[in-house]
Design goal:
With about 220 residues, the protein is an alpha+beta fold. It is about 25% helix and about 30% strand. The protein is globular and about 55 Å long. The structure holds flavin mononucleotide. Flavin mononucleotide binds next to strand 3, strand 5 and helix 2.
């Protein structure tokens, strides 16, 4: 069947892309605004694009027309961010950071996550993540209602038990064991994780809305 992207609305093109180009790894991005307010959010339009220089790219949309999501606004403002990778154990916390909180809210705190200082950039990394990449902004390519953030990786943290041979930079690429596999969107893992956490956070295929989450949280504590 032919789907002519010149004829169908953007929302439908999005559905076709995200349901066919899978699995996609998730960048769990920590950034800060100029006042130091912390922000964390997941992005599955993500990958690495060059080894030397070490370059990552993340597609970050707008919150509403003309207004960049906080992560993109922060990265543009400060030029620094950390990409954390997500394991299955982090799925529920990751989903909470996907809620569109107000820009003054620290999502790490909301999700009960711990931050650790970075070595080369100001935003911290997530202690619960198996891998974290400290990045400096190279460029943001304007895509209209979205922006492609290109970052140079200046330092990487890998959890000790995943390092096979530090001198030769051999990492135990965690594909074999389900427990260690990094979370990607489209893999069976995320569906299961989503179903589980949907009890708490209403996602229904799109990021949860703050109001819905608040409502569910209040319901739980009553
Ligand atoms: C698994 C997952 C993947 C996501 N991928 C993207 C993405 O690639 N691009 C994007 O703009 N939003 C994506 N989102 C939605 C953002 O995480 C969400 O809008 C978030 O609230 C943005 O936070 P911020 O405004 O603090 O940057 C994703 C959400 C989830 C749960």
């Amino acid at each position: 069947m032919l789907f002519d992207f010149k004829e169908i609305p953007g929302k439908e093109c999005y559905k076709l892309l995200v349901s066919t180009v899978t699995p996609r790894p998730i960048a769990w991005v920590v950034s800060q605004d100029a006042n130091g307010v912390l922000n964390a959010a997941p992005f599955s339009f993500f990958n690495v694009f060059s080894g030397d220089p070490a370059v990552v790219a993340i597609g970050i949309g707008n919150r509403k027309p003309g207004q960049a999501k906080d992560s993109r606004a922060n990265i543009r403002e400060t030029g620094e961010f950390v990409v954390n990778l997500v394991s299955e154990a982090n799925a529920e916390a990751m989903n909470i950071t996907g809620i569109e909180f107000d820009s003054t809210v620290d999502e790490l705190e909301q999700a009960g996550l711990t931050s650790l200082p970075s070595a080369r950039v100001k935003p911290p990394r997530i202690a619960e993540s198996p891998v974290a990449m400290e990045c400096e902004l190279m460029q943001i390519v304007d895509l209209g209602e979205s922006g492609l953030v290109l970052g140079r990786v200046v330092a990487m943290h890998v959890r000790d038990d995943l390092v096979l041979d530090a001198a030769n930079h051999y990492i135990d690429t965690p594909q074999k064991s389900r427990a260690r596999r990094p979370l990607s969107l489209g893999a069976a893992g995320i569906s299961a994780a989503r179903r589980k956490s949907n009890k708490k956070v209403a996602l229904s295929g799109r990021p949860g809305q703050y109001a819905t989450w608040r409502l569910l949280e209040n319901g739980r504590s009553n």
